[in-house]
Amino acid sequence: MNVPDAVHPLPVELESDGETRRFWPCAVETDRGLVLVDAGFAHTVDQLEAGLAEAGLALSDVRLAFLTHQDGDHAGGLARVVDRTDAVVVASERAARVVDGTEPPRGSDPGDDRYEPVAVDVAIAGEATLDTRAGPAHVVPTPGHTPGHVSLYFPEESFLLAGDAATAADGQLNGPDPTFTEEMDTALMSVRALSELDISRTLCYHGGFAAAGSDRLADIAQRE
């Protein structure tokens, strides 16, 4: 998988309705420890730890937990990660209101069971930058899948961590999944904005790696 050396995909698997579903959190090296990008489910944190160990890293190396958005498959394991690492939690302002329990997750009522709320230490209002060993990682607002969705762009590596702003299948980069996207028109505007960046490779939370970027994203935005 042709990702930057400082980026470590951490695939986790879930059995659902007789099939295995795979999700793609990842860790990014910095001079101060690891940034964990999305946390998976509570019951997949052990898989995250095993993936880190295979890369010669440890869960205790995580210093910052960064969420692309608030859905349970991204934030459900956050409480366990924070309990075990004391990581600083970063999310968009819109996502933070769900992650910390102020608002219920989408599609649920306030009394429904939900993942354990976690305080967000840094709520991002717009763009921001993280310093990493893969160069600066720009936080790019990519709303549509959810209102507060963000992606991470590494210009020095022409690399995108898309979250759910795009998907992949068998190495093919695709658009956001319409079944789970709240505002498809807005999501496609985000795809169009991403296509204007210099991206040649992409890691999607659903579908994994694709050796594609700007040109393919522009095609997706135009066709949809």
From TrEMBL:
Gene3D superfamilies: Ribonuclease Z/Hydroxyacylglutathione hydrolase-like
TM regions (residue ranges): none
Signal peptide: none
Residue ranges constituting the Metallo-beta-lactamase domain according to the UniProt record: 22-206
Xref: PANTHER family: METALLO-BETA-LACTAMASE DOMAIN-CONTAINING (PTHR42951), METALLO-BETA-LACTAMASE SUPERFAMILY PROTEIN (PTHR42951:SF15)
Name of the protein in its database record: MBL fold metallo-hydrolase
